[in-house]
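Thread: Modeling a multi-component assembly for a lab meeting

Hi all, long-time lurker, first post. My supervisor asked me to bring a structural picture of a complex we are working on to next week's group meeting, and I have zero experience with this. I have the sequence lines for every component (711 residues in total). Could someone generate the structure of the whole assembly? Inputs are pasted exactly as I received them:
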Amino acid sequence: MSKKWTVLAVPVISVLLGLLAGAIIMIASGNNPAAGYMALWNGAFGDSFYTGETLRQMTPYIFAGLAVAFAFRTGLFNIGVEGQLLVGWLASVWVGVAFVDLPKVIHLPLAISAGALAGALWGFIPGFLKARLRVHEVIVTIMMNYTALHVTNHFIRNVISDGSDATDVVNETASLRSPFLENITDFSSLHNGIYLAVIAAIIMWFMLEKTTLGYELRAVGYNQHASEYAGMNVNRNIILSMVISGAFAGIGGSMQGLGTFGNMFINSGFSGIGFDGIAVALLGGNTAIGVVLAALLFGALKVGSLNMPIESGVPNELVEIVIALIIFFVASSYMITWLLSRFKKKEAK
Amino acid sequence: MEKRKFGFVMSMVLAAGTILGACGGGAEEEATDNGGSGEETDKFTVAMVTDVGGVDDKSFNQSAWEGLQAFGEENGLKKGTDGYDYIQSKSDADYKTNLNTAVRNEFDLTYGIGYKLKPAIEEVAKQRTESQFAIVDDVVEGLDNVTSITFKEHEGSFLVGVVAGLQTKSNKIGFIGGIESDLINKFAGGFEAGVKAVNPDADVTIEFAGAFDKADKGQQMASAMYSSGIDIIYHAAGGTGNGVFAEAKSLKETAPEKEVWVIGVDRDQSEEGKVTVNGEEMNVTLTSMVKRVDLAVQDVATKAMNDEFPGGEVIEYGLEAEGVSIAPTQDNLSEESIAAVEEWTTKIKNGEVEVPTVPGKN
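Re: Modeling a multi-component assembly
Sure thing. I ran the full set together rather than chain by chain. Output:
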């Protein structure tokens, strides 16, 4: 029971401390923190439109967070979520544009599977190198982010389109857009992907906690040698873990390609979703439910921050600072748990 | 002890709740204040949504904002939701949200700055048929509540091409574009045609950086170009172009006698080219192709205020309306080029010369 409370207390306290520090910075820079946070709140949940936008922003965050969390639970740092997301985005848009006259029941799953497959492939390479040659996955995944960025840009310009800097919009049969969700959220870009994200979170929880496969993956994460001694195939599990993680990230890209934007364009830099996914997973304690909640927080902060300058005059860069501080406090969770335990000791006396 | 800990967490949550609750109250009052003053006056209000470059990009976002500020000053408006304001986008996903935020704040006219906002404007304008929009640098067709503002960049680029053709010593000239697109090809095409018109022997090398915000890439490309003998580089690359200036200035510092020039874009970039070598002040900016986004923004806002909003139309600002021109700073131009620029300006205005919008294959 006590341990459970600490697990919950660290992220909550980190978020509160982050917001508090943000308020102090706002006061120091001559702004009104109450007005600033109210603008943030209004911009994230102020009315149905903004709630829709927050949920839309949350969707790829869930996938990116799940990807990082999944790899982490099996002892791997997947820093390459950004790249896996980009190739997944490209693959699903490509399938979405290339096939015409397919029924939606085939086309949409096909496009999403293409995204998952591309992401999985991008995860397979570092997994394979790690398993066979013991090349550290952090190095490989970081480098593969850049490879993904430039490869996707090349494909957009030279293969999918004719020298243009954006692909065509995907066919209606591959689109995640939902007139129903748009209607109830006053034309926000919320799309059906949000359902998929929640389902994906459940799948990840089920796979890790309730299946033999998940048990093996986690065992390899805890102790490779013990797992090997117990007769598990460590190499296979490392590759499998990266492939599944990459597939999550790839579907995150499909959300952008088939839902939010409906196409893909030349990215001059990273979208940042994949890197934020690391923070989401960290804040969510690498659990499925934690990732969903952390993704909601990040989505709300990102979307709400856009409203801050116009409503309260607080520059929206402040939210970046708050996010950075939250991550800092989570990362220094040791400090918080130590403080909590001291607090406990005093009370006990 | 478990209970005590639980109590501690509860009190934290309650404390947070109280603090947040207090925040809520204060801001709400303020919000109603704003609403009140908004209702009293029936002023014309206008907003702009930037692309990811932000409002201080030293390029067209900044220029558009200067135009809005000038418009506001002229009509006695204040910055804010009951006057004129800007909303910055931090990622491509933000365009739609920001355009909707502008609509929700009941701005009478909302600008989308840059071609990247085109899909978002198209979509939002279809949904919010009551609101008026304008897009800079691209064309939205078939919507009565959107005005498209474009520029004849090829005409302005032609003029700076004439200058480059006349003032090059090595007969090698470079062009660095941001991302290859129809828009940037207009710069390249016009520039190349201008060079060839006065100096058919000159070589024009056209390259693209693939980004508008990578100064390091611009610097690398400029370094390669200058060392290959190119002495004048025209950049149409936004922030990437800042690297071109950096490279030219550092070359000038190490070898002041070397001929290296940059031609600026969008605004008069003579400020960017200033460099002090051995106590002597020099400037590597040969000239700039000025695109008066500010004038266009002011013009359309004024029209909209007078109920003459040119919805559904495409307005193309060229040499005639001073929409594009050569920069007023002409310290580094020879007499010959100034005369030639005037001559070609008249020819283009008369329609004697048709400036191409794509670079030729040479």
